[in-house]
Structures are given as C-alpha cells and as structure tokens.
Amino acid sequence: MSAQSNTPHDAEPAEFAFDAESERQIAQILAKYPPERKASGVIPLLYVVQKQMGRQTGSAWVPRVAMDAVAERLEMAPIRVYEVATFYLMFNTKPIGKYHLQVCTTTSCWLRGSDDVTAACKAATGIGAFGETSADGMFTMTEVECLGACANAPILQVDDDYYEDMDGPRTTELIAALRRGERPKPGPTIDRMDSAPVGGRKTLLDTAGQGTGTQDNG
Ligand code: FES
C-alpha cells in the first residue's frame, strides 16, 4: 500500500483555482447539504480536485495547495482536509501516471490469480513494485484492498473502471490497448453475464415456478 502524505510534493503547483467544470460540480455537490453542514462535502470536493488535475495535467492527484482551496471553500481548518485526503487511498497525494492500475490483492483476488495480474502489469509497463510509475509516465501501479467485486475476482481497476475476471494475458492485452489510446469496455473480460456463474446458471432453473431449482430439502 502506498504511503499517503500531506507533505508538499516537488511537483506541487504554486497555486490552484477551481475551473469552470469543477465550479459546476461543486455547486451540485454543495446543494445537497445545509450551508452549516457543507464540510460534509469534503470527500466529493477532493474528487473534484483530483479530476480537474487529471484534465489539466494528465495526472489525477491532489496537491496540498488544492487541499487548502477545498478547506477555504468549505470553511474548514486545512488540517481536517489533510486528514481526509491522506487517510483514503483513493486520493493520490503525489503525481501519478496517465493511467492508474489498481490491483486488488485481497483474499478472493489473490486466490484467483492477482499475482499473475501484478506480474503482467510489471512486465507490460516496466514498473518494478507497487507505488511506482513507469518511466514513460503512462502508468502507476497501486496495490489496493478488496474492491467489493469478489464474485468476479481478480479485479484490475483502471482509474474508475473495473476490469473483472482478469488473468495475465488479458492484463497484457488491456495495457496494450490503453497504450494505443483505446479504452476497452469495463466489466467481465470473459464470456459471462456480470457476476453470473461461469458456465451458466446453476440454481433456480425451474422457470415454471413449480420447484426450488436444484435445492433438495429432503
Ligand atoms: S478481494 Fe478483490 S474484489 Fe474482493
């Protein structure tokens, strides 16, 4: 797991201002909360910052100066924004590559081959370890905990998209497609309907409503 820090990074911009798209999103977010409770918008606003940095620089991260801008907008002490931004792994507190490869290595994914996914990510990008960015600046690889999609393990999350039922060769193909500027459709990468059983349905097969599928209660 990569270390999170609110220490200003070398790439820290001198200043940060919300752009028009971010201002539009912030207005929608803050409309959900009473004015005296607008601090509740801290997580969504940090996401807004991260997206804006991605649009403007190609690297979706949250600089310290932007945390300060969020604190000012929400009338919070800056330390409270730093606490949130450095606690949650989904906020990048240092620059990352154009594509963020997030490999789930928790139990279900590990049992189903996350080691192969990790090895394929390394081989296809030249990255040596979790937390590193490829020399060409295209990819950052991060180890993440359970992504809540265990039924389709192993999962490789790219930015906000889940690629499911992955293995080594499909990981290699996906990274090659990203390099070509393509964005393959997220979801299961094998012939499978969402999280339905591999090979087709196994229960509730009696469509006439006369039985209880394959279950035998004696
Ligand atoms: S263990 Fe990987 S999604 Fe749950």
Automatic annotation (TrEMBL):
EC numbers on record: 1.6.5.11
One GO MF term: inorganic cation transmembrane transporter activity
Family assignment from sequence similarity: Belongs to the complex I 24 kDa subunit family.
Cofactor: [2Fe-2S] cluster
InterPro entries: NuoE-like, NuoE_dom, NuoE_N, Thioredoxin-like_sf
Keywords: 2Fe-2S, Iron, Iron-sulfur, Metal-binding, NAD, Oxidoreductase, Translocase
Keyword Transmembrane helix attributed: no
GO CC terms, sorted: catalytic complex; membrane protein complex; organelle envelope; organelle membrane
Pfam families: 2Fe-2S_thioredx
Lineage: Bacteria, Pseudomonadati, Pseudomonadota, Alphaproteobacteria, Acetobacterales
Descriptive protein name: NADH-quinone oxidoreductase chain 2
